[in-house]
Amino acid sequence: MLYEDASAMMEALDGRRVRRCAAAARAEDAQRGIAGDVARPTRTNVPAPTGEADMIDIEHIAQETGRVPLALHACCGPCSLEPVASLRDEGFEPVILWDNPNIQPIAEHDLRLATLLTWADIAGIAVVRCERGAGSGVNSALTPAEGRERWERVVAPHGFDRVPRCRACYTIRLDAACRVARELGFSYVSTTLAVSPYQLFEDCTEILERLAAANGLTPIVRDWRPLYPKATTESRELGMYRQNYCGCRFSAAEATIERHERRDERKAARRAR
Predict the structure, then answer these.
(1) pLDDT tens digits for 187-212?
(2) How far apart are CA 179 and CA 128, in angstroms?
(3) Do β-strands 127-129 and 188-191 pair in parallel, antiparallel, or remain unpaired?
(4) Distance CA 156, CA 114 (A)
(5) With the C-alpha atoms ordered 94, 233, 239, 263, is the resulting torsion angle positive or negative?
(6) Mean pLDDT of the chain
(7) Could you give the domains of the chain?
(8) Peptide bond before 164: cis, by omega within 30 degrees of 0?
(9) CA distance 217 to 128
């Protein structure tokens, strides 16, 4: 079926995507005969905003872990696995900052957040939602609704022009993370966006370095792309939900087109034999 635009396609896919993920998870768990090492999150068990809370105590984290606290902007659970392990090996203790108003639809956003929270709880990693009113006690961030409105105003106009769209998206997400990191008293900041080979690594690095400097932070830049296959394997073994597009409706449409193109190429290759 053809859709008039990316928004229409996302609306059509929303319910089917969540039902498909839930059905696949149940089938895999039934085949293994266990619930899995990490409980599979659903749309119904995402922690709801509970109002403002006390801000995180990074001095306590440093004393308790013996490591240097680092604010780690995270885009999802699977992409956080190797950066967290790598940073801990270097002597940092990552505290995950979540600010991803690009993820659409909202059900997909909530599913990815639930996956991250479930894994982080087991791994002993603190998570701060960089959204005012989401229970993290931060004041320098936008509310979830304001964040989505800003994304539509700043990023969406670029449409399918990927490089400026992704640069604008990196900017608003990392800007929020850096401002919150400064508010919470961190000295170091990094992002899990650097683990995916599908991201614009150089652009993301340049934006992180610029925004970190503007907020008096030291950016920790690492090329985790070689670890992506390992993260993929590990996240599957843990039974984590794995998305098949970056986050926004435009990336979803692009990913669908690319999958169809690869399928057509495979069919053509088989016919040519």
Answers:
(1) 999 999 978 998 999 999 999 999 99
(2) 13
(3) unpaired
(4) 25
(5) positive
(6) 84
(7) 6-272 (3.40.50.620)
(8) no
(9) 18
Cα separation, 70 vs 116, whole angstroms: 17
pLDDT of 73 strictly over 80: yes
Residue 237 CA to residue 234 CA, distance in Å, equals 5
- Residues 9, 14, 19: CA angle, nearest 5 degrees: 135
Cα separation, 115 vs 93, whole angstroms: 20
- pLDDT, one tens digit per residue, over 143-161 is 999 999 999 999 999 999 9
Alpha-carbon gap, residue 97 to 11, rounded angstroms: 28
pLDDT tens-digit readout, 226-254? 999 999 999 999 999 999 999 999 999 99
Q: Which comes out higher in pLDDT, residue 80 or 15?
A: 80
Residue 218 bridge partners (DSSP): 188
Could you identify the residue written with the tokens 């669908």? 256
Is residue 159 a contact partner of residue 165, using CB atoms and an 8 Å limit?
yes
Measured distance CA(43)–CA(108) in Å, rounded: 8
Task: Report the interhelical angle of 201-214 vs 162-184 (nearest 10°).
Answer: 30
The answer for 36, left when phi > 0, alpha when psi is -120 to 50, beta otherwise, is: left
First to last CA, the chain: 30
The answer for residues whose C-beta is within 8 angstroms of residue 124's C-beta and 6 or more apart is none
**pTM over 0.90, yes/no:** no
pLDDT at 241 (0 to 100) = 96
Residue 96 CA to residue 119 CA, distance in Å, equals 12
DSSP letter for each residue of 45-106 = SSPPP----PPP-HHHHHHHHSSEEEEEE-S-SGGGHHHHHHHHHTTEEEEEEE--TT--SH
Q: Is the pLDDT of residue 6 over 50?
A: no
